[in-house]
Amino acid sequence: MKKALSILLMAVLMLGVLSACGPKRDSGTKNTGKKEETAAKPEKLVVWEDKDKSGWLKKVAADFEKKNGIKIEYKEVEMATKMRDQLRLDGPAGTGPDIVTLPHDQVGQVANEGLIAELKVDKAVTDKFSDSSIAAETYNGKLYGLPKSSETPIFIYNKDLMSEAPKTMDDVHAFAKNFSKDGKYGFLALWDNYYFAHGIIGGMGGYVFKDNNGTLDPKDIGLNNEGAVKGAEYIQEWYKEGLFPKGIIGENGGSALDGLFQEGKVASVMSGPWSFKPYKDAKIDIGVTALPTLSNGEHVKTFMGVKGWHVSAYSKNQEWATKFLEFITNDDNSKYRFEQTAEVPTNKALINDPVIKDNEGAKAVAEQSQYAIPMPNIPEMAQVWDPMAKSLQTIVTGKAEPKKALDTAVKQIKTNIESTK
Question: Residue 393 pLDDT > 80, yes or no?
Fold first, then answer.
């Protein structure tokens, strides 16, 4: 009996040791039915912000330290490619941050890798943000981040060539047919690029993965359904009619489109907020709106990219890191960050705030974001881009009909997904 008890105690002790070895996965106060206890305050929290974007943190970090007595140490790490890779190295080594910022389409991958912790916050916190931006930060039904900002393609026009933005894409098409001649174009878009083409395909009824109440089903792909084919046929017509120059097809299409617009040869384009500064620097008097509606009455369903704040799964201070996330994403601090970085927040209360409402570009992004869908954040999305790019290339160059090209793309996507299992 004593021997059995001794073995049992030893097993319990071993389980305790093993559980202490892994990164801390909980990120909030413990709810055991008793009064919740707040974790002990750390001396500091380490924050990684995107390259050339940390200036705003000086004031906000000081405000948080004054309120809570916790110092905020921050550094810049390039977000899109380096942040994730650096966390993979520094997290397990114990030299990583408590908080990182990531594009939402990486959330599924880093969550599966155990790099970021699930967030435990009150509904009152998530209710501050647009539903689509919270969906972007959710993976497999669990919240992994709070939104920092969003971006999505919008309609940009040269006020010297187009007096006001058309209300519908039919109006844009009619304008383009009349305007496009002698090396000038009424409207241009990178529709051989799936990031931009999805706005049309999605607006016509296509979809990447079926959304089942917030969970994406990679086995249900809607990129060759009836709506997707109609969208691809619509895209093909613009090229067949010569309304788009051949030079904006392929990997150099973006620079060709921007060059033509900056030279004053294009009346309007579908582009993103990253274009505002270079277009203005080229002395183009731009107007910016949400995209005109499609012929079926639906909005152009653009992809939306959300940048979010996340708590490292290796942080020993996940509760306080979460409190800091709530603090920096509140309405006041989100507004301040926008004023410093021009990145548009997703806080509902700020949509009608003069700082957004009176900013034409920000207002357009905020409005279009209401019609946009977050790029799928599940790992299977990585298998979609290349087949869709090749499919669209054959469609816009007239080498394949839309239905056949999309069938081929979906078949390849499914094969790619299967091969990664």
Answer: yes
Q: What is the mean pLDDT of residues 360-367?
A: 93
The angle, 0 to 180 degrees and rounded to 10, between the axes of the packed helices 385-396 and 194-203 is: 80
Q: How many other β-carbons are positioned within 10 Å of the β-carbon of residue 268?
A: 27
Q: Residue 81 is encoded by which pair of tokens?
A: 């490619």
- The Cβ of residue 91 has, within 10 Å, a number of other Cβ atoms equal to 21
Sign of the Cα torsion 310, 353, 303, 133 reads positive
Distance in Å from the first CA to the final CA of the chain: 48
**C-alpha span between 323 and 64 (Å, rounded):** 10
pTM over 0.85: no
User: Contact 114/387 with Cβ under 8 angstroms?
Assistant: no
Looking at domain 39-150+305-374, its CATH architecture is: 3-Layer(aba) Sandwich (3.40)
Question: Can you tell me the distance from the alpha carbon of 91 to that of 69, in angstroms, rounded to the nearest whole number?
Answer: 25
Beta bridge partners of 221: 209
Q: What's the pLDDT score for residue 244? A: 95
The answer to whether the CB of 148 falls within 8 A of the CB of 347 is: no
How high is the pLDDT of residue 242? 94
Q: Where are the domains of the chain?
A: 39-150+305-374, 154-303+378-419
Average pLDDT estimate for 1-9: 37
Q: What is the pLDDT of residue 421?
A: 76
Radius of gyration over every alpha carbon of the chain, rounded to an integer in angstroms: 24
CATH number at 154-303+378-419: 3.40.190.10
The more confident residue out of 10 and 338 is 338
CA-CA distance, 288 to 360, in Å (whole number)? 6
- pLDDT for 150 beyond 50: yes
Helix or strand holding residue 30 (H, E): none
**Which DSSP helix (H) or strand (E) runs through 329?**
none
Alpha carbon distances (Å) from 179 to 19, 59, 278:
68, 50, 24
Print the SS3 string covering 122-167: CHHHHCCECHHHHHHCEECCEECCEEEEEECCEEEEECCCCCCCCC
Query: Minimal CA–CA distance to 347: which of 332, 358, 359?
Result: 332
Higher pLDDT, 272 or 1: 272
The pLDDT of 71-75, averaged and rounded, is 97
For position 213, what pLDDT does the model report?
80
